[in-house]
Amino acid sequence: MEIIRERVATRGHLLDDFPGLGLKAYLMREQADGSPVNQYAPFYLWTRPEGMHAFLWGPGFQG
Question: How many angstroms separate the CA atoms of 26 and 13, rounded?
């Protein structure tokens, strides 16, 4: 999970001004806190479908 924390800390801001992105959150659940497994999910809400499409099929999602 340290890899995920580092990735969010160093790359999370890159999407701050992405056109059409209304909200982003990085969700984590750690085995050390009572969960049976480690889990991670980026969560995005889009204001327009065009922004989501540009992210998924453009350079945004390539990383």
Answer: 12
